[in-house]
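Question (not urgent): is this output format expected?
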Amino acid sequence: MHSCELCTTSGGELLWSDADCRVVLVEGEEAALYPGFCRVIWTGHVAEMSDLNAAQSSHLMRVVLATESAVRATVSPDKINLASLGNVVPHLHWHVIPRWQDDSRYPRPIWAAALRDSPSRQAPDKTRLIAALIAALQAPSH
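Got this back:
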């Protein structure tokens, strides 16, 4: 049995889930610096997008894009960063990261050294974020 953080924990505060994946709100320091930062986590333990079949990868990307739309509608960032790295936790997941031009690391990645202090920002209204996520998931695909 392997030991995988995303197999044994939720990976954040659960906002939404189905049989294949879940959307969580990131907690801790990252949440304070980037309010609205979410992760979309594949339920089964796979490491890469190419481990999924076409229908699964399409579903996962639909959830990632719906999460992006919900974060944009809820916290109004200047930019959204999408990242699927998995170097530290080799379990398929996507980061949906709201960015502001005055955040401490902008325009660099959030994992880079800070360039300045970040202004304080309000945590998102979780009820509004969940409602926006559900609405985005129910919207017709493009």
